[in-house]
Fold:
Amino acid sequence: MLNKNVQTFLACEHEYAESRVVLFGAPFDSTTSFRPGTRFASRAMREDSYGLETYSPYQDLDLEDAKVFDGGDLDLCFGDTKKSLAMIHDFAAAIFQDGKLPFMIGGEHLVSLGTVQAAAEKYPDLCIVHFDAHTDLREEYLGTPLSHATVLRRIWDIVGDRRIYQFGIRSGERAEFAWAKKHTVLHPFDLQTLAENLAGLRGKPIYFTIDLDVLDPSVFPGTGTPEAGGVSIRELREAAVWVGRNLKIVGCDLVELSPHYDASGASTAMALHIWRELLLSLERDFMVRPAQL
Structure:
């Protein structure tokens, strides 16, 4: 008898009840300010994940030893931003309620607002670690307070002063950089001071958001808002793994891959590389590894 074909991310076929990490896609890009297409990221990553090995030689860990549930993509309403954010919030809140860790694949960066709202309800002392090319701290963009250009400002509305730690930032309005000096902890241009500036967050609940345009567009052209001067894939992998291993991550996301701007598939492959390494770093202490032969 044939069985229904339900495609999941590579090695993420476990049942919800037995899994600690829950993957889901948030295919939404209705507030994109330049080039749209991030709504297709989760689908492309899920399909292309089967070109990836489950084993990471960087960490000597294997996805086959992790128990991860793939909840699929949310059926979001592209024409209603508030409704879409509410759907993301409700889905993430249910995951938090069950004591699990949501790992969301965007979508544009605004989708992070829904999961952060749910995380802050569960963890009132929540802090944010944010990798990005852009400040995302505008009060409004084209007359609306809900935009991928305002998402970190809306997150600040939730968590407050000096609880957002930003790295890799190299683009934004002058007013955004000035505002950040008073209200966030912003380290521009690279990820080099990560460990020393995040050491004080050990033990605190952290939501980790990675906008993949933190990567330089010479290696990662598949994004809607490319910004020159970014980090390398090696720098991003090492930084993401450090965060996953050393901080108490309660939720995370990868956002802003627009796969069709890189017909080679290389940008999707790099997004998957970071996805695998971050996921393994989050699960390393919870894996049941087979006995060594």
Q: What stands out?
A: The beta strands are 21-26, 55-56, 61-62, 68-73, 101-106, 127-131, 164-169, 185-188, 205-211, 248-255.
